[in-house]
Amino acid sequence: MLVPRPALPEEGRRIAFLCGCAEPARDGVGDYTALLAAECARRGNATLLVALNDPHVNGAAECEGMLRLGAGMRWEERVEQARECARRFAPDVVSLQWVPYGFHQRGVPWGIEKGLEKIAGGRAVHLMCHEIWIGAEQGASLRHRLTGAAQRAVLRRVTRTLKPVCVQTSNAVYAALLRRAGMDAAVLPMYGAIPVTGAEAAREECVVRIGMFGTLHPAWPPEPLLERLRGLGSRIGIEHIGHMGAGEGVWRAMERRYAGEYQFTRHGEQPPERVSRFLREMDFGLATTPRALIGKSATATAMLEHGLPVIVNRDDARYAGVDAGERPDGVIVMDENLIASMRAASRREPRWRLPEVADQFLASLRRQR
């Protein structure tokens, strides 16, 4: 027998967030979810965060407001522990923070909807799609298209089973693709994982400093961007902060080719306060996400929130019949006007978007009463 879907209360909601991993600074969706949960709690809501597939813990790890379930546990055991935790917490709404690879190593978590249904227990469900499926872009490989078809089928099963009262995603392209697949979705903007802290940092007048932050995707092409940057006619420093990930080879290749022209500096992983200071010291940010999907990048968002003009030099993800929407303020695309655009760019007032996104998130739940 189906449990009746509860109405959402006007104030003081109890929200259970479900994600894959909650290890700080090791999972972008986990960081996003933890920040949103904390902001909702700050506004008087009770929150619970459950990480269902966390590779950084063995077994179950529980602390105040959080349950992390190790990826090595049997799925049935994880479901049961999460279900019991949710039963004790008694949420008014369950917010599923969806990314297929967060719940399965190969990105195809067949049958996950049954476990999620048990955890939700008939309560109202909010669905945030950080990722949807791969292989939707023009020119995608057969392997990616087949994997993407399976991921799309899984997501459809999840929505049919959980019947979410609200579906959201971070960018216009994903929203259009979801609607095309029969899932009505609205855009909930991304916010960065780095709060804006400290005073405006001093910058060197004689050097143009271009900052990169976080994972460097191995598909990111340094050319022809680095060749075009010569047109600035200034000394250029390219600096990276954070965990670089699989893009180590790309970085080393840049260092070898341009060592005599540009100064390359790596700062490694740093606490949020140091990252914030770094972003305020830079003259430009450099994003590695394709232009069409820039709205889903937490690192590009963090640069923009710190007032940086952000250069986007990838335009390799295009979707037939899908409009990528307006370019965010502060984004500079790599075209024939790149140098002129950089010279005309100016920093904006830093502003962390988490509070306003939390307002929009909570408002979307209230509208579903």
Output the number of helix runs: 12
Order of helices and strands: EHEEEHEHHEHEHEEHEHEHEHEEHH
- C-alpha termini separation: 22 Å
Number of beta-strand segments: 14
Assign a percent range to the helix content: 25-40%
Unreliable sequence segments: 1-9
Sheet with most strands: strand arrangement: 3-4-2-1-5-6-7-8
Largest sheet: 8 strands, mixed
CATH architecture of the largest domain: 3-Layer(aba) Sandwich
The CATH C-level name of the largest domain is Alpha Beta
Rg over CA atoms: 21 Å
CATH superfamily of the largest domain: Glycogen Phosphorylase B
Structural class: alpha/beta
Mean residue pLDDT: 92
Q: In words, what does this structure look like?
A:
With 369 residues, the chain is of the alpha/beta class. It has 2 domains: 189 residues, Rossmann fold, CATH 3.40.50.2000; 138 residues, 3-Layer(aba) Sandwich (Rossmann fold). The protein contains 12 helices and 14 strands. Strands 3-4-2-1-5-6-7-8 form an 8-stranded mixed beta sheet, sandwiched between helices. It has a 6-stranded parallel beta sheet with strand order 11-10-9-12-13-14, sandwiched between helices.
